[in-house]
Amino acid sequence: MTTISKETLEFLSLLSENNNREWFQEHKETYLKAKDNVDAFAQQVIDGFREIEPQIPGELTGKKSVMRIYRDVRFSKNKSPYKLNFAFYISLSAKGVHSPGYYVQLQPGNSFIAGGMWMPDAPHLKSIRQEIDYNGDDLLAILDSKSFKTYFKDGLSEEDKLKTTPKGYDADHPNIELLKLKSFTVSYPIKDEALYNKGIISEVINCFKEIMPLNSFLKEAIASV
């Protein structure tokens, strides 16, 4: 059973203090060892989760799901060349297609499991709001379930939530607070020590399992877009 090694987080800690190309090249072998650790971890998560989530594309592997550590600095004021985390994403659709999914971030003091749909584009957002308008009780049932709240007691993230009502909806709509959302994601923090535990694969998969009804709701909402 693959766990995240202490050396992987130690590499990220050192990278946060030495975020430059010269240091990275000098420690490339350490980076590659850490990357292999994350690839193997992601693969075990995918293999286990695929048994209960058949919508995961068959071609997705752990290595393919792990995001690049290199930052795109072309349009950013922050010119640091490297991200300070490893992360992997399990999409429910083919590469390049915006859809709900599952995400794990690995970073010293800031690791978490997440899922849902982050900042959907305008057509998808419109469809999700329409689904909430028509079938909001279905979404509330998911968010209010006891098992869901075990992991996500704060519910959906309110990142970039509208301060006013979205166009086409009244302020007294029973689900207006959900309709104001621009992202539909949840997250669950993980302590560094938990990543070293042999039970971490099961923990991630169990967390993903609770996200599945949310992702099914979102995928159904955008199916016609």
From TrEMBL:
<dbReference type="Pfam" id="PF09365">
    <property type="entry name" value="DUF2461"/>
</dbReference>
<dbReference type="InterPro" id="IPR015996">
    <property type="entry name" value="UCP028451"/>
</dbReference>
<protein>
    <submittedName>
        <fullName>DUF2461 domain-containing protein</fullName>
    </submittedName>
</protein>
<dbReference type="InterPro" id="IPR012808">
    <property type="entry name" value="CHP02453"/>
</dbReference>
